[in-house]
Amino acid sequence: MTAPDEGRGIAGPRIDDAFRILHVSTGNVCRSPITERLTRHALTHRLGASAAGGLIVESAGTWGHEGAPMEAHAATVLSDFGADPAGFIGRELLDEHVIRADLVLTATRDHRAQVISMGHSAGLRTFTLKEFNRLVRAIDPATLPDPEDSGGVVARARALVQAAAALRGWLLAPSEEADEVHDPYGAPITYFRSIGDEINQALDPVVTALTGVPAGA
User: DSSP secondary-structure letter at 70?
Assistant: First the structure.
């Protein structure tokens, strides 16, 4: 899994043999840094650094604190999970980030709406994290490309996004709240840890679907 542009997590132009995942929250100092670094950690753990190289994980904020480090409690949560918080630098969400992303996962429905409103045909590849979790759990893994085939995890990831987009109108959330990850900014470490657990649980089926490798493998 590539870590483009050290610390920032935002890379250059779209690469045909890569798949870019963009995590979006408000300030890019709490939720999206946690989600970005937990995703990187899980991909590397399941695939190894070289096999995960085609998956580029990034983050940004709709009101991003440009140049800011992640919140100290967010860094603590990542360390709790064994993920690396070092070198992170916050970014404000730009058109170029959305253009380059193959999959955008947001913390809330409002973030999703903001990304889609930017255009760039983002609607079919932008989901809340919990929405994407719900959709991928309904997809039969046997219908996705084998990550061992020539296209590897990149072909599998692209097929997964298409399948999830096709299901979206048929598999609705039980409530509006079901698709939200709340902002822990300014909260005590206990709340940050509860949000970290929530994000980690939501990510687990997503990473399994992307890689074809379950957490315990």
Answer: P
